[in-house]
Sequence to fold (293 residues):
Amino acid sequence: MRIFNRVLATIISIAFIVASAMGIVYLIGLLSRNAQLTGLVSGIFRSLTRLNAGQIQATLIGIFLVSLVLLILEIRPFRARFITIREDEAGKTRVFGSDVERFLVQRLARGKGITPESVDVVVHGNRFDIATGIEVSTDADRQAVRSQVEYDVKTNLASIGLDDDLEHISIRVARVKRVA
Amino acid sequence: MSLNIFQDKKLIALAVESAVDKMKGVLLTRVRAVGESYPYSPDVPGVWVRGPDREGRYTVDIYVTLAVSGTTIPEMANRLRAEIWEQLHKEGIDMADRVTSVDIYVEDLVLAV
Fold:
C-alpha cells in the first residue's frame, strides 16, 4: 500500500473515530438528560452550516489540492532500493537491497552466539550499516568480536561478488551479553 | 536507422527472453508488482527495451530472479550478457551492434545454503 492509500485510510479512520466519539458523547448526553453534552455535539454541526459560500469553496479547493498531491505521490514512478554492484560499458548489475540484507543476516547468524533476531542489517545504497547483538564469554575482547563480525561480513559479501565497496561497512556490536 | 522501432524492440525483447531461457538459474521476473510503476514490456514482461537514440541504438533493462550457486553475481551477469549478445547475433540481424548495454536488475536473489 503506497502513501496515497495509507493517508486515505488514516483520514477515514480518524473520521470514523471522531464520529464515534461524538456519537457516544451525544448518546450519553441523551441518556443522562445532560443538555450540555448534547449541546456540545449539536453546536459543532451547527457551526458547519454557518459557513458562507466562499468558505465552503476554499475548503473544497484545499481538499482538492491535498488530494492532488497525494495522487501524484501515489502514481509517481516507484524507485526500488537496488544496490549497484558492477557498472561498465556492458551495463549495470544491480541487486535488490533487502535480498542482500537477508543474505547477511542468514550468514552472520551462523556465527557462535549470534541469532537471526540479534542481527540488524540496513543497506543504504552501497553503504552497509550492520548492528549485531552477540553473546560472548566473560573474558571476550569486544574489539576482537567486532573484527570477527567485520571479517565475516566481508567474506560473505565477497563470496557473491559484492566486495567492491567494502570500505562503506559500519558495524556496531550492541547488546553484548556476557555468559560464563 | 530502422523506422520500425516497435518491431526492433520486440525482436530484442524476444532475443533476450531466448537467452534467459537458456541460462540455468535465471528467470525473468514476469509478475508486475501491484501498486508499483514497474518496467513492463508488452512483448516480454521483465524486459524493458529503451531507445533508440540518435544513432538508432538501444539499451536493455532486464529484471530477473537469480539463483547463485558456486559463483558470484557479477560472473553470472556477465555470462547472461554474453548469452544475450550471442542470441542477438543468431537472429541474423545487426541488433548486437545496436544494443549498447544490458542493465541487469536482480529482483530476487536465491542463494545456495
User: Anything to note?
Assistant: Helices of chain B lie at 5-22, 73-90, 95-98. The two ends of chain B are 48 Å apart (CA to CA). The CA atoms of residues 26 and 66 of chain B lie 5 Å apart.
